[in-house]
Specification:
By secondary structure, this protein is an all-alpha fold. It has 4 domains: about 30-145; about 270-375, no CATH class; about 380-535, Tetracycline Repressor, domain 2, CATH 1.10.357; about 555-710, Tetracycline Repressor, domain 2 (Orthogonal Bundle), CATH 1.10.357. It has helices spanning about 5-10, 25-45, 55-145, 150-160, 165-180, 195-210, 215-220, 220-240, 250-265, 275-300, 310-330, 335-350, 375-410, 425-440, 445-480, 490-505, 520-550, 555-560, 565-575, 585-605, 615-640, 650-660, 665-675, 685-695, 700-710. One of its GO terms (cellular component) is exocyst. Keywords: Cytoplasmic vesicle, Exocytosis. Interacts with EXOC2, EXOC4 and EXOC5; may be part of the exocyst.
């Protein structure tokens, strides 16, 4: 394609549309892109020679398109120019209007400044007009203002005569008149109304006084009570409607109701003398339910329902009583009777059917959900006070009973007997009655108090038993030393054994239901110890009579004559005849211990080595004497009532077999059999018995003693009683001891 052709293909610019240099980089770039796109299109269309024939058509078409676009652009630009022209005109009009408004405002400002100056000149006139209006109102109210002092005096008279509703109406009228003067006088207080404040306070006090005597007025003058309550209620609504500061007459009325009720029943400080508390509480038991009944029947109808009069009464009485009791407990300590009475009354009577729990009272009188009259600390304090004072009294009573009993022991007369012939004294019954009565009565109060008193009673009984035992020891010592010889020493000891039996058989009655099963164990131990001590003292008295007789056993005279044991049996029988005055099982225990003591003395005498058999004849005599004596003792104690199964005399028959054995070589078997029957027999006892035989050589003795260790061990038996372990035996010669014996 030649240069001429290329020039023809360049788009020509329309006249007047010469393109100056680009004003923005974006415009220049857009023109370059447009020219590039046009060249690309033209090169694509006229690439082939046969298409050059249509070049004129393409040129005319592009010329038409360019003219159309220019016409449209001119139309749009013309439209925009017309809009701009219109806007400029409107802005010019607005500027003229703003300038006119500014001039008008300046003129108005000047006029206002002139009017303000004129107003300042009218201020005195305005003040004169306001004063004229006030004077006009005062002139209209002047007749009523002149009547204010008389109205105040009249209202005071109405208050004094307890015409409370009329007085309140007059007070309201005076207050309304005062309010009417406030607006004209711009809040200025006139001297004539200075008495309204004290007048309102006097009416409030009258309302309080009437409310404070509500119980009495409900019975005597209910109209006055109703008037007082209505005044308080109406005034509360009136002050609330006017949004004025409340006078709290309603609250003061309720408070006066409570204070009057408390003053009636608890106004005097409670400082009851000993024993007077029960009467005061009994009076309250009657008065408080009656007061609640009056409140429900008479006071409640005189008051609005929201007063909840019965509930108010119940809570007020409860709180007043609670405060009064707290003051009482903070004062001087109460006695035992008063502490018990107060505990029982507060825990059982007060909420019981006789008082606040009465079915005649409505649910509003329920105080069970309020704080209890007595706190846990109060109950603890009262229980401790009661137990401490009761313990002191019980100690004194038991000591007095013991002193009276001890004083009887040195009398010239024998102890008294009951209808069955047993020694008897009222002391056990007195002791048990004192303790049982205190335990029983505390069950009326609370389980904790009963447990406290039960523990105290058992402690005091244990102390009493120890004192009783000490008194017996002194009684026995004085009798033995001759300082205070008792004419009937043994009978009074036996009487004390009956006392112990009576206490032991009845002590279980002190155990309340639900108490720990082991609580009586210390007392039972003390009773058993007392029984053993009494038995020991009785047996010591018997031993004192029998010891001179056993001093002659064994002897040649004993072998030839039964007189010595006859004397023993005679004295024992005479002594034990007194046991019939002792109740079983203590009598059987005494007989068993007396029989054992006689046998022990018999064994002790045999072990002393006073007699050594000279031959087989004397050994036979000893064996026969042992058999005879065992039978005699068995018959003696069977006659006294002791069962044969518990007797210890059969030990003499076992010794007889040992002494009567003819072949010393068989002594080992006999000793082993004796060990099986009496496990507490020792080598010393066997040696003493072999010495009594008088025919045992050293080898035979050693063989017999060795059988104690070589033989089978005795089987344990709970029914066996100690015998040989209580009998001292003389220490054998060293040559007769085993290598492992006690003297080795």
């Amino acid at each position: 394609m030649d240069s001429a052709t290329k020039d023809e293909m360049q788009p020509s610019l329309l006249p007047g549309s010469s393109c100056p240099g680009p004003e923005w980089p974006e415009q220049e770039r857009a023109e370059q892109l447009a020219r590039g796109a046009a060249l690309k299109w033209a090169s694509g269309i006229f690439y082939r020679p046969e298409q050059l024939a249509r070049l004129g058509q393409y040129r005319s078409r592009e010329v038409q398109r360019t003219c159309s676009l220019e016409a449209r652009i001119k139309s749009v630009v013309q439209s925009y120019l017309e809009g701009v022209k219109t806007g400029v005109w409107q802005l010019a009009q607005a500027s003229e209007a703003v300038q006119g408004a500014r001039e008008a405002l300046g003129q108005a400002h000047g006029l206002l400044q002139g009017m303000a100056e004129t107003t300042q000149t009218l201020k005195p006139l305005r003040e004169q007009v306001a004063q004229h209006k006030r004077l006009q109102v005062l002139s209209q109210l002047l007749p009523r203002l002149w009547a204010v002092p008389a109205a105040v005096a009249h209202t005071q008279t109405l208050i004094a005569t307890q015409r409370l509703l009329e007085a309140y109406v007059c007070l309201r009228e005076l207050e309304q008149l005062q309010e009417e003067t406030w607006a004209p006088l711009e809040g200025l207080e006139l001297p004539v109304f200075e008495g309204l404040g004290p007048l309102a306070e006097a009416l409030g006090r009258a309302v309080e006084a009437a409310a404070g005597a509500a119980g009495q007025l409900a019975r005597e003058d209910p109209a006055l009570l109703v008037a007082a309550v209505r005044v308080a209620e109406v005034d509360a609504g009136y002050m609330a409607s006017l949004e004025l500061a409340p006078r709290d007459w309603r609250q003061r009325c309720l408070q006066a109701l409570q204070e009057g009720l408390e003053r009636t029943h608890f106004g005097t400080p409670l400082l009851p003398e000993p024993g007077a508390l029960a009467g005061w509480l009994e009076a309250l038991r009657v008065a408080l339910p009656a007061e609640l009944a009056i409140a429900e029947a008479l006071v409640a109808p005189c008051c609005p329902p929201h007063y909840k009069v019965v509930q108010l009464w119940a809570h007020t009485l409860h709180s007043g009583l609670r405060r009064c009791l707290q003051q009482l407990l903070e004062g001087p300590g109460l006695g035992a009777a008063d502490a018990f009475t107060l505990l029982h009354w507060a825990l059982h009577v007060y909420l019981g059917p006789e008082m606040m729990g009465s079915l005649e009272l409505g649910p509003e009188a329920d105080v069970s959900q309020l704080e209890p009259l007595l706190t846990l600390e109060n109950i603890e304090q009262l229980e401790a006070t009661f137990v401490a004072q009761i313990q002191a009294n019980v100690t004194q009573w038991l000591q007095r009973a013991l002193d009276e009993e001890v004083a009887e022991w040195n009398r010239e007369q024998e102890p008294g007997t009951d209808s069955s012939g047993f020694y008897h004294s009222p002391m056990p019954a007195i002791v048990l009655q004192i303790l049982e009565e205190n335990i029983r009565v505390t069950s009326l109060v609370s389980e904790s108090l009963q447990q406290r008193v039960h523990g105290m009673a058992l402690s005091e009984l244990g102390t009493f038993l120890r004192s009783f035992s000490d008194a017996l020891i002194r009684f026995s010592r004085d009798h033995a030393s001759g300082e205070a010889t008792a004419p009937h020493y043994v009978p009074y000891l036996l009487a004390t054994l009956n006392h112990q039996s009576a206490l032991s058989s009845s002590v279980s009655g002190l155990q309340p239901e639900g108490a720990a099963s082991g609580a009586l164990a210390p007392v039972e131990t003390a009773l058993d110890e007392l029984q053993r001590r009494i038995c020991r003292l009785v047996l010591e008295a018997l031993l004192a009579e029998l010891q001179p007789l056993f001093a002659a056993l064994p002897s040649r005279r004993w072998l030839s004559s039964p007189e010595l044991l006859d004397d023993v049996c005679e004295r024992t029988a005479r002594f034990c005849q007194e046991f019939r005055r002792v109740r079983n099982p203590a009598a059987q225990l005494l007989l068993a211990e007396a029989e054992r003591m006689v046998v022990l003395q018999y064994l002790r005498a045999l072990m002393q080595g006073r007699l050594v058999c000279r031959g087989a004849h004397e050994r036979t005599q000893v064996a026969e004497r042992l058999q005879h004596d065992a039978a005699q003792l068995r018959e003696l104690f069977l006659g006294l009532g002791l069962e044969e199964s518990v007797q210890c005399a059969p030990v003499l028959l076992a010794l007889r077999d040992l002494l009567n054995l003819r072949d010393p070589m068989l002594l080992g078997l006999e000793v082993a059999g004796l060990r099986q029957k009496f496990p507490d027999v020792s080598e010393d006892h066997i040696s003493a018995l072999l010495d009594l035989r008088g025919d045992v050589s050293r080898e035979q003795r050693l063989a017999a003693l060795s059988s104690l260790q070589a033989g089978p061990q005795p089987s344990p038996s709970a029914g066996r009683r100690a015998l040989f372990s209580l009998v001292p035996a003389p220490t054998p010669a060293l040559s007769s001891c085993l290598p492992s014996g006690p003297c080795a």
